[in-house]
Amino acid sequence: MEISALNLASLVYINLHYNCHNCTFFPLQTPRLSRIFFSRPMGSGILLPQALIQFSLCPRLETLHLRMPAKLPRISSTATYGNLKQLNLDIILFRILVQEEDDVDVNCVLDLLKAAPLLEELIILVVGGHLSETNPQEMRNHSGFTNDHLKMVKMKGFLGHWYETQLAIGILENAPKLKVLVIDPFEKHYSDDGKYPENYSEQHMAVVEEKLKGVKTDAQILFL
Q: Which end of the chain is least crowded, N or C, by CB within 10 Å?
């Protein structure tokens, strides 16, 4: 299967099948595609890595919204999303099997930022997961790149997990022109009742705030 549509401007792809390890993503012949919503919130496999490669071949892509599981694909030779201005990441941490990942792969998220050098706005929503303070991952050195166009970052569903804190630090360190980083504990995409999540901890958030104060940045950091 192949999508060949010269005038297609927007694409929505939703795959809710868990047992889809051998599913493949179709080639795109869409030179005017500017907006993509891709939802693959459960399971693993080759679908998401293939999709990311196809998305990098869309020269006019400006807005990309990915809804994906915690186990993100590794980008070995980083694809470049040369015109991408806005990136939304919904990272779903609900476990179905015991062996599934329950932490966000910070390295892979930073790799995505590296692949979008003109990115201006980043919104990350983390849904689910157990509050963890220890870092079981080995962090790579990401100091070799900067996002000089990134101006606004919002992290929603932020509860003080180690990976959220590490990701916020990585963004602050690699976005020298960042104007504002918003830390929002609410998962507004899923609930808008105005209540803090059950596992929200003011103590954990205070620790996060102290850690972020130690990062050299001109950005304004707002805790909601």
A: N
